[in-house]
Amino acid sequence: MKKLVIFAMMLMFLITSCSINTPKTNNDNTDNNAEENVVEIDRSEYLTGEIITDGNYEISSGGIGSICFVPDKESREIIKDKYSIYDLYYLNDESYFIYYDNLSVTENLPKDLGIYKVKVKFDLKNIYNYDRFNLIDITLFDNIGTILYEGKSYETNDLDLDVKVKDRVLGLIVDSVDKFGDEGFRVSLCGEIETEGYYNIFYGELHGRNLGIIYYDEKYEEYVPMMMGECNNKQLFYFVDNKDLFSQLEDYSSFGRGKFKISNFHIVYKHGMGREPSEILTEIVSLDEGYKNMFEITDKAETNVNGYNDNFAIVSIPAEYDENNYAKSFDYYYINKNISKKVHLLTTEDNYFLGDVISETEFVLKSEGYDEKVGAYGVLNEIKCKITDQGAVLTYPSIAANEKIDKFNLSAIDDNYNRIATDGNYIYYIDIKTNYINRIRLDGTGNETISKQKCYELYYYDGKLYFQGYKQLNSWISCIDTDGGNYQIIYGDKEKLINNFIIHDDIIYMTVFVEEQEAGYAYGFYKYNLLNGEMETFDDSIALPQSPGLRLINDKIYYRIDSKIREYDINSGTVTEYDTVIDNIQEYNDCIYTNSRYSIMRHSMENISEYDKIFEIDDGFLLRKISIIDDLIFFTYCHDYTKVDKSGIYVDVMNIDGTNRKNLFYFDYSTLGHYAFDTIYVLNDKLFIISRDNEYPIFKVFDFEGNELWSL
Predict the structure, then answer these.
(1) Which residues span the domain enclosing 24?
(2) Which residues have CB under 8 Å from 655's CB, separation 6+?
(3) Nearest-CA neighbor of 262 among 54, 89, 472?
(4) What mean pLDDT do residues 403-407 have?
(5) First-to-final CA distance of the chain
(6) Residue 48 belongs to domain with CATH number
(7) Which entry of 2, 274, 319, 671 is 20 to 30 Å from 93 by CA?
């Protein structure tokens, strides 16, 4: 029995001795009583925890260096108790940066990337105009306290909103995470990244010195961390001076190409309008010989990258200065990645950037600003450039005023799913790939994305663009200005899905989800006052979504309930029901035009049940969409998929009475016609054909003879 007691005591001492060098990890499997086994550590002078380092302790050009410190649980509590009276903005961060101005304090620290246990001594000191932790002494030290988090590893370069200090990605270690509001983040990572690409040295007026940017090639994207699939500094490193490397680039050329290594990589996600230069250039692996002395720096670096891709870059440099020594005009150059020779494009006082790229030697330069002709901000000028063996050939567009869009059938636009809208100056359209809102002039110039809000129907009303979110279950109606600014939600209900809407005299008429029936979602008919926010029904019925949706013609709204068409008179508030079915409806010259699968009909405005059949499609074909203007009917049709296994869409035009029919265009279509992804619009004397077909998307513009004018 005595031997048994002695054995038990020895076992207990053995367990206790093992706990001295085994820090506790705070996770779900840890015994809550394990803290009792941790040997007490004297933290009266030194605090304990971990540092995250890549071995680079160099002092920056500002005379300060820093180390990332992650305190253990016990030290964190001491820090909060001791420094809470100072109202330090970073006190609740997962990690702290401890600063130093003498390299001697780091001479015994590791040189390899990793997380190391340490004890540190620091105090408060005013550094960079803030009270920050100033390093006095630091030593590697195994006996630390409770480690709050061990870190996780990401399998790809895509970080999520749950990223934390000590997480690992692509061989890098997260050493700082700042969260701003609901989704804003700034994440810094410890370790080196090697990439290849263009670099540019330029003078930063705000910083009063030269700064550097590396535009790394697209093939390196998957090797550079980003957040939630995006990064506002994607394909770009913004670096500051380190050692003599910056000077090497300045002496070589202010713009060039090469391979580089950087550290201290930062990601800024959904926060602010920009960021400070944060990356550190740690190594110039190589520089492309052809760029040597291409752009020399005499005083301040003044080259500017106005656009680039994996084949070439557009670079500008001041050509002339005014009396105040501000740049008055600029020389623009084309520089091919593989040829390393600058080709002069033009000298101008305007600021241009790279627009549409046709090929490695053909592209468009654009300038933006306030266009007084149309009263809006947008693209002012475009120059088509072609690079030849003899130099650059530039084609300037006509300086004539932007063509006004003053002839279109709004009911025909509504009847074709509202993929475009117009204010008379621009065509606003929904991009067939991204569903973003773009705008373009009638002649095909000035194409630009004005909003990355996704939508699937677009309306212009009273100086604004109204739209409904793209495939959004909890739907709302939003609007933006015609330059894409001032985004605001006009109406939204998290519990109610909006099916479609129209706007008339400051009233939004819409169908809103009411209840789920066996056959599907049923919708009610509501109107929302934009002036006072009041909401009420304009028809007490509910119905499943059915063509033609809500269609506004003059001061009447047409919609379908079951197998009948209803007509709501906006002025009188009365509802009239017609014993007829209509899938499409347009107005032209005080008549209503509709089409079925096989016929185009003209109806009376007084009674849409009465109609004349003016056209019938050939046997074996099905009608799809119509658009009527200028006594002409443009229409699309396809093969009857119930009879013929053949896809493709035909576009024809004929007179308003059904005579003089002519084919204008044919385009491929991946389905047999089951789904209506094609739409047609007529603006002024131009026919727009849009197809959202996944396999054969098109956006083409024709004259009325079928000649293609331009396309996207």
Answers:
(1) 1-38
(2) 631, 632, 633
(3) 54
(4) 84
(5) 92
(6) 2.40.50.140
(7) 274
Residue found by looking up tokens 């509802």 in the block: 575
Handedness of CA 324, 325, 331, 337 (dihedral sign): negative
Residue 409 lies in a domain: no
pTM check: above 0.90: no
What are the pLDDT digits (tens) for 158-181?
Answer: 898 899 999 999 999 999 998 876
416 forms bridges with which residues in the sheet? Answer: none
DSSP 220: G
Q: Encoding tokens for residue 528?
A: 């929302």
CA distance 538 to 540: 7
Q: Report yes or no on 453 lying in a domain.
A: no
Query: Which residue among 395, 428, 457 closes a domain?
Result: 395
Q: Which amino acid, residue 259?
A: K
Q: Which residue has the tokens 């006052």?
A: 529
Residue 209, both tokens: 């010195």
Q: Which of 274, 289, 334, 327 is closest to 309 using CA atoms?
A: 334
Statement to judge: residues 230 and 289 lie in one domain: yes
Identity of the residue numbered 59? I
Nearby residues of 541 by Cβ (< 8 Å), 6 or more positions away? 524, 525, 561
% of the chain surpassing 70 pLDDT: 86
113: Cβ–Cβ under 8 A, 6 or more apart, which residues?
Answer: 53, 54, 55, 171, 173, 190, 191, 192
User: Count of CB atoms within 10 A of residue 207's CB?
Assistant: 11
How far apart CA 464 and CA 679 sit, in angstroms, is 23
Determine contact, residues 227/263, Cβ cutoff 8 Å: no
Strands 312-321 and 327-336: antiparallel
The answer to whether residue 635 is domain-embedded is: yes
**Of 374, 395, 416, which closes a domain?**
395
Rounded mean pLDDT of 103-121? 94
Residue 561 belongs to a domain: no
Convert the pLDDT of each residue in 211-269 to its tens digit: 788 898 888 888 889 888 765 454 566 666 555 788 888 889 989 999 999 888 888 87
Q: How many domains does the chain have?
A: 4
- Whether residues 74 and 192 fall in one domain: no
Q: Which two tokens stand for residue 319?
A: 């050509």
Name the amino acid, one letter, at 314. I
Q: Do 17 and 48 sit in the same domain of this protein?
A: no
- State the CB neighbour count (10 A cutoff) for residue 436: 17
Total count of residues recorded for the chain: 712
Could you tell me if 287 and 242 lie in one domain? yes
- The arithmetic mean of pLDDT across residues 648-671, rounded, is 89
**Cβ atoms of residues 332 and 365 within 8 Å:** yes
Q: Within 13 A of 590's CA, how many CA atoms are on the CB side?
A: 1
Q: Are residues 663 and 697 in the same domain?
A: yes
Pairing of strands 611-616, 599-603: antiparallel
The residues, ordered by sequence, that sit 6+ positions from 591 with a Cβ below 8 Å of its Cβ are: 602, 603, 604, 605
Give the pairing type, strands 193-204 and 237-240: unpaired
pLDDT of residue 287: 93
Q: What is the pLDDT of residues 334-386, one digit of tens each?
A: 999 988 899 999 999 889 999 889 999 999 999 887 666 555 667 778 899 99
Residue 245's identity, in one-letter code, is L
Q: Are residues 219 and 334 in the same domain?
A: yes
> If you compute the radius of gyration of the chain from its CA atoms, what whole number of angstroms results?
34
Please tell me whether residues 19 and 84 are part of one structural domain.
no
